[in-house]
Design a protein that fits this description.
The chain is α/β, with parallel strands linked by helices. It has helices spanning 23-35, 53-56, 68-71, 87-100, 196-205, 230-235, 241-265, 267-282, 309-315, 400-421, 447-452, 471-480, and strands at 12-19, 41-45, 107-109, 111-119, 124-131, 137-147, 171-173, 188-192, 211-216, 222-225, 303-306, 319-323, 326-330, 333-336, 341-343, 346-349, 362-365, 368-370, 377-378, 382-383, 389-391, 423-428, 435-439, 458-460, 488-492.
């Protein structure tokens, strides 16, 4: 429903409206171009550039923590032998993809989506977006809504309530808001954290600092991968690139799944293998307690380092790893619970994200506000009880884009089916399934998931209301299974009425 003070001429209307121009939103738009060329669409992006995560994060050394062959889009494969790519290259890949598919004219930058409202009478979503620089509101209407907003809050990362932080006289930084002018040359630096960001920052900064310390409360499993895929590099000499990197993609998808499944089925064996690999790389002078988590492999997301760069850095005299808890900050740095003092000119709080489901957008259906934690997800893509809306959410145990790709494929299949059958809406309806207490992210035991668990959509007690985190099975379900399955409820379109369309 259009607000009373909004002129109908001011409302912009498309068939499909995508929120977010990151890896999921750009991928969705490319799929629409290929599979649904008759559908008009637009993308609303809060930032002033394409890229999402890869435009926001600018800290030293930022890179993928998934191999690029499976992280690249299936329809536009990554064609470089570099296994774990830097953030700038990934951003460039996304910009080039958008250019190849002529998407930029469809993107409206600088707009934050605040509210979406479904009208069953009109079978339309009315979307309110505000220009961040002026606060001016725009109204859009769409037959179908795709939320490609990721899973964390862009405004600020998570920073614990550190005792005494106000007493600290040095520079305190969160990587999500990295200052462009931060000079850490010849400075004493402490990086708090043990996740992907911390293990990236330490080797990237070490050579320029006076000394850098990685302070962790508890260790993380770390797997070393070759920085360059030498098999693919050699095969390029005799085979077409398309074949070489297609094979690399399939190989790495299988390898990811094998490692994950092995960790779940044989946790003790995989723990010994993972720790033995670390032990061989850190050398005798580094205490293995810093790399021995108290949980099983893949209970939390596993971290990956190229060519063991973190281990090499820790073997040098430029970096140290400390496993301890913070008692309090003081003027000069951090006092640990063990009594040790870590003096620091700069402290970097690589302490994680604030999860935010569906972009913290107010969702209204026929006048009633909807809460994400009262709904299940259907096939990990649609939302129980909400018509004509999809939320693209990637994998936590493999490359994000693998799931984003097949989710977009499914959405396009659904759109074509609805057009061919004359349906105006499709709604997942849970007739027999029961929502469980666990969320769609509860396969991970990470702190950022625990903090947000009560806000996330629920798991169901059976398919298609459960999240599989299994690419092959998800692909069968989303790409090959029939659209009409007795769970999706369709409504026929009324007499077609004329309305203005925007490209």
């Amino acid at each position: 429903m259009v607000a009373a003070n909004t002129k109908q001429d001011d409302v912009q209307t498309v068939d499909v409206l995508i929120v977010g121009a990151g890896i999921s939103g750009i991928g969705m738009a490319c799929h629409l171009r290929e599979s649904c060329p008759d559908q008009t669409f637009a993308i609303l992006e809060r930032r002033q550039a394409i890229g999402g995560t890869w435009d926001l994060f600018r800290y030293p050394g930022i890179r993928s923590d998934s191999d690029m062959f499976s992280f690249g889009y299936q329809f536009r494969p990554w064609q470089e032998p570099k296994t774990l790519s830097d953030g700038g290259s990934i951003r460039e890949y996304l910009v080039d993809t958008a250019a190849e598919y002529d998407l930029e004219s469809h993107i409206r930058f600088g707009l934050i989506t605040t509210r979406v409202e479904w009208s069953s009478d009109e079978a339309l979503w009315t979307v309110t977006a505000e220009a961040e620089d002026t606060g001016e509101a725009q109204i859009w209407q769409a037959r179908y809504l795709v939320l490609a907003t990721g899973y964390y809050r862009y405004d600020a990362g998570f920073t614990p309530d550190f005792p005494g932080l106000a007493d600290y006289k040095g520079t305190f930084v969160h990587p999500q808001q990295w200052p462009e002018d931060l000079d850490y040359s010849n400075k004493k630096v402490v990086v708090i954290g043990s996740g992907a960001t911390a293990i990236t920052l330490v080797p990237a900064m070490a050579d320029d600092t006076a000394h850098i310390t990685m302070l962790q409360r508890s260790p993380t499993y770390i797997l070393s991968l070759p920085a360059v895929d030498m098999i693919s590099k050699q095969l390029q000499r005799v085979l077409p690139k398309k074949w070489v990197f297609g094979m690399a993609r399939q190989r790495n998808i299988s390898l990811q799944r094998w490692i994950y499944a092995a960790c779940k089925k044989y946790p003790r064996v995989m723990r010994r293998i993972l720790l033995a690999s670390v032990r061989a790389q850190v050398g005798r002078d580094v205490d293995m307690r810093h790399f021995s988590p108290d949980y099983n492999p893949w209970d939390q997301r596993m971290c990956v380092v190229p060519n063991g760069d973190l281990f090499k850095t820790l073997r040098s005299d430029k970096a140290t790893i400390v496993t301890d808890e913070i008692a309090r900050f003081n003027e000069h740095g951090i006092r640990l619970k063990s009594g040790e003092q870590l003096d620091a000119d700069i402290v970097i709080s690589a302490t994680g994200l604030n999860m935010e489901m569906l972009g913290d957008i107010e969702i209204v259906k026929d006048g009633e506000v909807q809460s994400a934690n009262t709904h299940m997800t259907y096939k990990g893509v649609l939302v129980e009880g909400l018509p004509n809306v999809a939320a693209i959410f990637g994998y936590t145990n493999a490359s994000w884009t693998l799931k984003a790709d097949i989710a977009a494929t499914y959405i396009c299949r659904l759109l074509r089916h609805m057009a061919e059958a004359g349906y105006r809406s499709a709604t997942p309806v849970a007739r027999d399934a029961v929502a469980e207490d666990s969320s769609v992210m509860d396969s991970l035991d990470s702190n950022y998931v625990k903090r947000a668990s009560g806000k996330l959509p629920r798991q169901g007690d059976r398919l298609p209301w459960r999240v599989l985190n299994h690419y092959r099975r998800d692909r069968d379900m989303l790409v090959d299974e029939p659209i009409e399955d007795g769970v999706l409820e369709f409504a026929k379109a009324p007499t077609v009425r004329r309305r203005r369309r925007a490209a």
